[in-house]
């Protein structure tokens, strides 16, 4: 599913605060600030595994996550599923190199596939759903049904 320009822009803004919520196998949420979160593509969120011991354990056991990006009064929540954990390859090596410049280790890079997003900004659009995975297929079915 593709994220909007607004959602991607805030996820890729280095000054925005990004928060990752993972869920344990027992259903207990765990929330951490994760400055490395980014949207390298319209349908992908990535986050470096730096000191994420509890989060990494949760991510390996339960694929449901929530990423919240906030800057000022602008805020978006993206619900997503774990796609994979990378420990090698060009993307991982680029993230690792950037973090090494800041004196931080990179044990892996988690990739998440967005499912739906909500505007959480302070204002009249608060709670507005921006997209939902599979919604474009449902819209196509509705259009085809009307044509028939």
Task: Give the arrangement of secondary structure elements.
Blueprint: H1 5-11, E1 17-23, E2 29-33, E3 38-41, E4 44-49, H2 53-61, E5 64-71, E6 74-86, H3 90-101, E7 108-119, E8 129-132, H4 135-147
Antiparallel strand pairs: 1-2, 1-5, 3-4, 4-7, 5-6, 6-7, 7-8
Identify the notable features of this structure and list them briefly.
8 strands; globular; 40% strand; 148 residues; Pnp Oxidase, Chain A; 28% helix; alpha+beta; disordered C terminus
Task: Tell me about this structure.
- By secondary structure, the chain is an alpha+beta fold.
- The chain has a single domain (5-147), classed as Roll (Pnp Oxidase, Chain A).
- Helix content is 28%, strand content 40%.
Using the coordinates shown, work out and report the CATH topology: Pnp Oxidase, Chain A
CATH superfamily: Electron Transport, Fmn-binding Protein, Chain A
Shape: globular
Proportion of residues in helical segments: 25-40%
Average of pLDDT? 88
- What is the straight-line distance between the termini? 27 Å
DSSP strand content: 35-45%
Major sheet characteristics: 8 strands, antiparallel
Total helices: the number is 4
Gist?
By secondary structure, this protein is an alpha+beta fold. The chain has helices spanning 5-11, 53-61, 90-101, 135-147, and strands at residues 17-23, 29-33, 38-41, 44-49, 64-71, 74-86, 108-119, 129-132.
